[in-house]
Amino acid sequence: MIRYLLLPLLLLLLVIVQLTILELFSFGWFGIEISLIVVIYLGFHLDTLHGGVLSLLLGFFLDCLTSAIFGLYMFLYVLIFYLSNIAGGKIYAGRPTLIASFTALCTLLEGMVIVLFYRYVFGADILDAIPRIFVPQAVVVGCLSPLFFVLLKHFEVFLHAEDRRPARRI
Q: Whole-angstrom Cα distance, residue 125 to residue 89?
């Protein structure tokens, strides 16, 4: 029961760390989206209801803190979650090359949708941002994703840990 209360707080903390600390390491060129890796991990390892709700919540936190179009990251993260959920049933999610390539592909998909939304909602032509921002971001996030999948697997075991010892007499 406590994990259902703890997970939203941890997701909010993840978004805050991603927006503050990780932006320092990228020198303002592109963001290192650990939250996208978490959404893909949720798609590979959780059921549709729990993973979809956590992806929606993670997108909500990002929308509240960064997005100029409210609901953009909620839409993107739920879309990427369902793509990951479908792909997780068809591919073996334990191979690092598949994880890295699928994460890079999802990062490029996210960048394309953001460019299209900005073009059609604001009329801003930011098509030149794809090779300058989104391709390096896809390479970096793709390379980091197998490491974060291992860390998230260990964290998942930590959340599901229970005390299985029998009760002792006092």
A: 37
Burial annotation 123-138 (CB, 10 A radius, 16+ → b, else e): eeeeeebeeebbbebb
DSSP readout, 87-146?
Answer: HHHHS-TT-HHHHHHHHHHHHHHHHHHHHHHIIIII----TTHIIIIIHHHHHHHHHHHH
Instruction: Measure the CA–CA gap between 131 and 145, rounded to whole angstroms.
Output: 20
Through-space distance between the first and last CA atoms of the chain, rounded to whole angstroms: 27
Q: What is the mean pLDDT of each run of 10 residues along the chain (170 residues)?
A: 80 89 69 90 90 94 87 94 90 83 94 88 81 87 93 75 57
Measured CA angle at 57 (ends 43, 119), to 5 deg: 85
Contacts of 119 (CB under 8 A, 6+ apart): 125, 126, 127
Tokens of 163: 């005390």
Q: Please give the model's pTM, rounded to 2 decimal places.
A: 0.86
